[in-house]
Amino acid sequence: MKSAISNQKSLIIGWLYPDLMNTYGDTGNITVIKKRCLWRGINAEIKSIGLNSNEKDLLSCDLLLMGGAQDTQQEIVAKDLKRKKDALKETIEKGIPGLYICGGFQYLGNYYKTADGHKLEQLGVLDMYTENPGRKRLIGNIAVETEIFGGKKILLGFENHGGRTVLGKTIVPLGKVLKGFGSNDKDKEEGAVYKNTIGTYFHGPILPKNPFLADYLIKKALEIKYGEEISLEKLNDELAEKARKTIAKRLSIAI
Ligand code: GLN
Questions:
Q1: Residue-number span of the structural domain to which 123 is assigned
Q2: Helix count (H) and strand count (E) of the chain?
């Protein structure tokens, strides 16, 4: 008897340091990815990549998510990630999609100087560095215009960081700040994009209010895993739209 061949697609979502790198609701990003997969019949397994994980665990993931943290946790993670650095670099260079928030975003650069002046060596995949002057944190709602996801789109969210990130010439920002501070409160740029890796200061969390970004990550992950073009079924995003309209009104911007 022939066995039925299942064409159900599946993804392994690697959640980097959930116990340490996870502030201001970043967990919500995991929930959104998982739900948007399940609603479409895509199996999504969440795999925690923490202090006890190894490079093999990291290399098995189809999509990576990392949240933000306070400087103390970032020091612990920077130390531990030295063991997994090569695997993470390989993953990013291969084009495995990833979303890195705040402290996670800072980790992709060359170094992060904490508010106490400790210089943490970071991954060095993105041509950028971050310094935290230890004064005036950049906190508030934020709106950014981006063209990375096909056509003009507005990302809406909330930022809370002390670090100021400066991009090198070879790296592209995620978008242009319409309202809020952005990566460094100077150049009106926010985040960075490299291959399928996205770094941003958006907490809040970012994905519930910006479902197009969640779908971009899911689509890329499936395309890379299955080597075929994927067209995702449209979902009912009425609630997300309502939330977006409320924030846009608060920020006095048109979306
Ligand atoms: N500790 C870092 C900073 O203050 C990152 C903060 C965060 O991830 N929210 O810039």
A1: 2-250
A2: 8, 14
